[in-house]
């Protein structure tokens, strides 16, 4: 019998995962916004804007929203080795990968059976991120890249391009499907 093997991205500290306690999200009515009325009976009023630590917020959403989210767009730090007022964009690659992995696993659990994830990233961590997303979501779920050229135009390219062809920034488009969905850990 042959065992099925898979490629895996490894880094220092990959096996270290944070222990997260369940959290409860509280609504701040001063920051909440809802439309004044429904236009149709099918209108949904269930979108949320959450302020705070994103890992803790995702963990709090996981219990209530696992398997229910239709679309997720994330804009993680590009890891350009710069410091900004609100966050440090210059962490070591292995730490960046650990931070991303912890969040992406929860995001995968939040997506419904045919949910879609868009990730905005530049070429600093693009190669690592693609390998990490393939490991978490499955390579078959990677659909497209949308690449922004310096002129500002968007160019949609099939997912099997090489990083040498990438002009920053890029959006990676993944779709979760029941056939390729990985069971929760």
Can you characterise this structure?
The chain is an alpha+beta fold. A hairpin with a 4-residue loop joins strand 2 and strand 3. It is globular, with a radius of gyration of 18 Å. Helices cover 23% and strands 21% of the residues. It is built from three helices and seven strands, in the order αβββαβαβββ. It has a domain at 67-175: 2-Layer Sandwich (Methyltransferase, Cobalt-precorrin-4 Transmethylase, Domain 2). The chain starts with 53 loop residues before the first helix and ends in a 10-residue tail after the last strand. The chain has helices at 54-65, 93-110, 126-137, and strands at residues 69-74, 82-83, 88-89, 111-121, 142-148, 154-158, 170-175. A five-stranded mixed β-sheet has the order 1-4-7-5-6. A two-stranded antiparallel ribbon has the order 2-3.
Features:
185 residues; alpha+beta; Methyltransferase, Cobalt-precorrin-4 Transmethylase, Domain 2; five-stranded mixed sheet; two-stranded antiparallel sheet; 3 helices
Can you tell me the CATH topology of the domain at 67-175?
A: Methyltransferase, Cobalt-precorrin-4 Transmethylase, Domain 2
Radius of gyration: 18 Å
Mind telling me the CATH class of the domain at 67-175? Alpha Beta
Report how far apart the termini are. Answer: 26 Å
Strand order of the largest sheet: 1-4-7-5-6
List how many beta strands DSSP finds.
7
Please provide the ordered H/E string of secondary-structure elements. HEEEHEHEEE
Assign the structural class, choosing from mainly alpha, mainly beta, alpha/beta, alpha+beta, or little secondary structure: alpha+beta
SS strand fraction: 15-25%
């Amino acid at each position: 019998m042959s065992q099925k093997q898979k490629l895996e991205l490894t880094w220092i500290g990959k096996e270290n995962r944070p222990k997260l306690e369940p959290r409860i999200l509280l609504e701040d009515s001063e920051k909440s916004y809802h439309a004044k009325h429904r236009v149709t009976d099918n209108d949904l009023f269930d979108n949320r804007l959450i302020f705070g630590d994103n890992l803790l917020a995702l963990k709090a959403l996981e219990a209530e929203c696992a398997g229910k989210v239709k679309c997720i767009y994330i804009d993680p730090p590009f890891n350009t080795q710069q410091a900004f007022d609100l966050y440090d964009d210059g962490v070591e690659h292995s730490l960046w990968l650990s931070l991303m992995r912890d969040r992406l696993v929860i995001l995968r659990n939040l997506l419904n059976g045919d949910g879609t994830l868009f990730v905005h990233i530049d070429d600093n961590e693009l190669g690592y991120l693609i390998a990490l997303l393939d490991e978490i979501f499955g390579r078959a779920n990677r659909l497209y890249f949308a690449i922004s050229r310096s002129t500002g135009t968007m160019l949609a390219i099939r997912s099997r391009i090489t990083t040498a062809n990438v002009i920053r920034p890029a959006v990676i488009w993944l779709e979760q499907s029941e056939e390729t969905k990985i069971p929760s850990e």
